[in-house]
């Protein structure tokens, strides 16, 4: 059984207008997302800004109440857990936020920020908590003496280390990493990523890594799920996805990732998508990507394709795609079939 199982997760935000604030529509931020995460692995969640990645991360922990679907952690339905059950779950499920400046209370000393979870969950005596905070500071590469300072006395990278220490305080099993390095300088990013990998090995952690940076996701993730306009369009083992992208949106994203070889970079062809990302308040009918898709045909406008195992053994065993015309690979050659991929058709049309 997987550590985390997500089934048909949905989060729709109401649009309220007028003096009476009546609901006149909905923003479909997350709309039918399903995936699972094995113990000890890192699941990367990628896509453009506004695609619903961070909303998924927050919904997994019930920081943002989901509209529908199920999230199961070690056999417990997080969506239906009582307040007491959720408090117990929170010790096993933690989050590191994107902004290291906004996520730390400026009026609290670092020792109180890192040790707050220990107080809430009534873990240990005051002396034991103080010792635990000192250990956590050392684990993330900070001096225990720095725990007496306030957040404004630290750099961005150091603040993110404090956020990581806070997440580790209760010995969690799962950590949601919501773009933890996007606000940091490039050199500091590498240090924080290496720290996260070391911590995962040392404490047997499981990560859900949310990011828009595919080069970072490739470095740290075991599997990658690609989101577009609130839906998952492709999910696969990391190495397979980067070598054999099948969804046209995934191909476009990967074509924008720079390669540190000038000659190879110059010979690559960048895929430029036409048009703008549609509004999540009025998503397109059929496949949500079809207005910008270079392979779209009439069938793409009728219904959203199902998320099914991809055609072609060369693409890997754990590769799934939601596309009627996915790229296929045979004998090292890429091609796109003229006929729609019938397995992706809705059940009433298959």
What are its keywords?
8-stranded mixed β-sheet; single chain; 4-stranded antiparallel β-sheet; alpha/beta; 350 residues
Outline the structure in words.
The protein is an alpha/beta fold and 350 residues long. 28% of the residues lie in helices and 24% in strands. The strands form 3 sheets. It has an 8-stranded mixed sheet, sandwiched between helices. A 4-stranded antiparallel sheet has the order 2-1-4-5. Strands 13-14 form a two-stranded antiparallel ribbon. The chain is globular, with a radius of gyration of 22 Å. The model has no long low-confidence stretch (mean pLDDT 91).
The SSE string, one letter per element, is EEEHEEHEHHHEHEHEEHHHEEEE
Terminal CA distance: 30 Å
The order of strands across the largest sheet is 6-7-8-3-9-10-12-11
Q: Strand tally, please?
A: 14
Q: Which spans have pLDDT < 50 for at least 5 consecutive residues?
A: none
Which percent bin holds the helix content? 25-40%
Taken as a percent bin, the fraction of beta residues is: 15-25%
Tally the helices: what do you get?
Answer: 10
Tell me the radius of gyration: 22 Å
Assign the structural class, choosing from mainly alpha, mainly beta, alpha/beta, alpha+beta, or little secondary structure.
alpha/beta
Q: Which outline best applies?
A: globular
Largest sheet, if any? 8 strands, mixed
Arithmetic mean pLDDT: 91
